[in-house]
Write a structure and sequence with these properties.
The protein has eight helices and 15 strands. With 346 residues, the chain is α+β, with helices and mostly antiparallel strands. The protein folds into two domains: 82 residues, Immunoglobulins (Immunoglobulin-like); 200 residues, no CATH class. The strands form five sheets. Strands 2, 3, 5, 6 and 7 form a five-stranded antiparallel beta sheet that branches. Strands 4-1-8 form a three-stranded mixed beta sheet, with no helix packed on it. The protein has a three-stranded antiparallel beta sheet with strand order 10-9-15. Helix 5 packs antiparallel against helix 7 and helix 6 crosses helix 8. The longest helix is centred in the N-terminal third of the chain and has 31 residues. The N terminus is likely disordered.
Length: 346
Amino acid sequence: MRVWGFELKGRIAFFLLVAMVGLCGGSMAAQNLPDAPSATAASLHGTVADTNGGAAAGAQATLTNQATGARSTATADDEGSFSLTGLMPGNYLLEVAANGFAPWKSPAFALGAGEHREVAGITLKVATTTDVQVSYTEEEMAEDEMRIEEKQRVLGVFPNFYVTYDWNAPPLSARQKFRLAARVIVDPMAFVGPAVVAGIEQGQNDFSGFGQGAAGFAKRYGASYGDEFTSTMIGGALFPALLRQDPRYFYKGTGSVRSRALYAISTVVICKGDNGHWQPNFSNVLGNLASSGISNFYYPASNRNGAWLTVDNSLIGTAEGAVGNLIQEFFLHRVTTRGKSTLGKE
């Protein structure tokens, strides 16, 4: 009986203990529940308008707690009003956005415990889209490329206008071809070269029919400059414009030495057409023949030798072109100063 009595008393004591813990726990849990609503909660209210002063219904207001990153959102009603409640005290940023309008942002501000703030002056401005697409015509791009070429000089002195380092350079218009040719023949260095040639010819008494002395030098100088003038204007402008061929040398710069050499030599008889396709270089061949033919009118009669002089000078001009292109491909690009594009490219 004692054992039974002891067990009974023990069980009663155990149940009483559990009941007391439950009551205490329930009381403690009740103490941890927040007040509804808390007396420390803050709120924010505002009205959103558009540029015309009308209500910006549907605008989205987003309030961000700077300390925690927590966000609260509200949507403006038909009157443009919104409310954000139950906010913890802290520093906040308010952003308001709506379709078709630029977002509105407030400076940082603090909300105190239990504070109810009204935000005034929220006016959304119409969004401005700056999406400018600049396009250039083929002639404008060719003009830009030609400006680059007109500043190309070997060692910064000797013009190197008739080469392009852009493999896909747009074709020149007829006007641009004549302008580039004119730019070459009026360049100061275009008058220096013939003087050197005339001096060498006079020293060797080439074209003896010109004679010696100042008069002989002047005649040789005029003939040399005449060759340069007719060759450039006819082979570099007139025929390229009529036949729609590009008179420039397109620098290759890639591939084996052999392939580049063959390409450089071949460009005296093949060229790029204005249509972008490679074709027989009639402009250069006919230009050399025409220039050589015209030279018969101002070289001494004793040195003309009929049609043979024309053919001979034409072949010499073609050979000079091949040698010049080889030098252009393998050497001149290293010592040529280049201009800069006005369209943002080099």
